[in-house]
Amino acid sequence: MILLASVLLALLMGFAVQRGGTCMVAALEEVVNKGRWARFRALLETSLWVLGGFVLLRAFDLLPMVPTGLSLHWHAALGGALLGIGAFINGGCAFGVVARVGSGQWAWLATPPGFLAGFALAGRNVGMTSAMPTMIPGWLEQVPIGLVPMIIAALVARLGWLAWNRHNGGVHATIWSPHHATIVLGVAFLLLFVCVGAWAYTDILAELATGRFMTLGLRGLLLPAMFAGALLGGWSAGLWEHRWPTPLALLKCFGGGALMGLGATLVPGGNDSLILFGMPLLWPNAWLAFACMCVVVMLTLWLAKLGRGRQR
């Protein structure tokens, strides 16, 4: 039963990522080029809802033990910068890769092997979330029980607001708003966390790269299930482009993935792990890495925009 539920939840995560076009690079590109913050706010909202979910799970005594994380260190800043450079070269973050593959943009299939190469180059002594000591953080144990009805009320109100906007805004049925997609992503992640514990697909790649694949168990099935969900999302929405890769595109995706893999070993964790796990658990190094990643991506996007303007 847990196996079936876990696979379905991983499928739902991939489906939501593809339907919402979830991607940090795309979100920041929208900020730089259009001055719109909707996608970026939606990604941050994901962390907020996951945080609320952790509080609810703790209140009902359903929260599994969680990795303790690491103290603040400069490696996180360097790792976040490498994540940003790699994501820019790759043309998408860890979530963006799932969305692009789900749309039939096959060059991005080279990014996960790039991740593996980056993790392998960094060596075996890397501390991803699944290898960290586990406990329930003290601050989470002390959260007042009175927050529970407030969190539930806020979630219901937010879902009602999004549903009302969708009904009155005439949004095309096959496209999800970034906020719809990231709420579904966050809820599916929380339920999956209850089923199998700490899980993010870049962490699974790290374990494969460092020879810990024998410890994956059920979690090893979730990676292909997530990509299958993205493919289902693209196919059902009629968004398949069947864009066959060029050698240059494959090289960019592999190289960008390798840089992201190197960065993820330093943080530790890829941007999916930061947004869904490290930031909601208030790990300082996760917030530092995320901030550095955003600054680097925005800077490279701004320089690229400036360069295009000078060529005209």
Can you offer a commentary on this structure?
With 312 residues, the chain is an all-alpha fold. The chain has one domain. Helices cover 69% and strands 1% of the residues. The protein has helices at residues 2-20, 24-34, 38-59, 74-90, 94-102, 111-122, 138-141, 147-169, 178-196, 201-209, 222-236, 247-266, 271-278, 284-311; strands at 66-67, 134-135. A two-stranded antiparallel sheet has the order 1-2. Helix 1 packs across helix 5 and helix 3 (38-59) packs antiparallel against helix 8. The longest helix has 28 residues, at 284-311. The chain starts with a helix and ends with a helix. The mean pLDDT is 84.
What's this, in brief?
With 312 residues, this protein is mostly helical.
Order of helices and strands: HHHEHHHEHHHHHHHH
With strands numbered from the N-terminus, the spatial order across the biggest sheet is: 1-2
Q: End-to-end distance, in Å?
A: 59 Å
Average residue pLDDT? 84
Number of strands: 2
- How many structural domains in the coordinates? 1
Task: Describe the main β-sheet briefly.
Answer: 2 strands, antiparallel
Count of helical segments?
14
| Helix/strand class | mainly alpha
Question: What percent of residues adopt helix (DSSP H or I)?
Answer: 55-70%
Percent strand: under 5%
Radius of gyration from the alpha-carbon trace, in angstroms = 19 Å
